[in-house]
Amino acid sequence: MGKIINRVTILSALTLVICSCSNSNPDSAAKQAQSIQTAVKENTPGSVPVSEGGYTMRAKINGKEWGATSMMPPEVAGRIIGYYNGEYIGLPYDKQSIEVGKKEIFSEDNAVDLALNDDIGIWGGRKGEMQITKVTDTYAEGNFFFTASSTRSNKTVEVTDGFFRIVIDK
Fold first, then answer.
1. Which of 14, 32, 56, 105 has the fewest beta carbons under 10 Å from its own?
2. What average pLDDT does the segment 57-62 reach?
3. Beta partners for 134?
4. What three-state secondary structure class fits 63?
């Protein structure tokens, strides 16, 4: 029932934007489109809310605290993805590599996905690493940091003090 309500909400928002775009300026239409994109991302089917003992992801992005409000189970997405307010961090995931001490070095072929509500939008984290720090029968935890860049800008984004916990089935 919740998925139906979310789809109805999204369709209603889309209808509102289409109707109002003809009567509004381009800046207003762009803001409304961004709001819809955020709503769609926040209602991504299959994502689960973060919780104290369950899924968790947090980091500092350019020194500012960032914390996921929902995450996609890695078995569904093939990545460790945390969502917050239309933004997300997507870390590489390999179920076979979930062992304490295992390090993942980010590179061109093994990058982090970073989507931010900024003028660039999509960033690639190709410098940095992730390390598994704890594994139990029900979850795995790890730390990460990376520097993200974009072909659209010479700016970079520093992501530090990253932490995640995912639920696993060993």
1. 105
2. 98
3. 141
4. coil
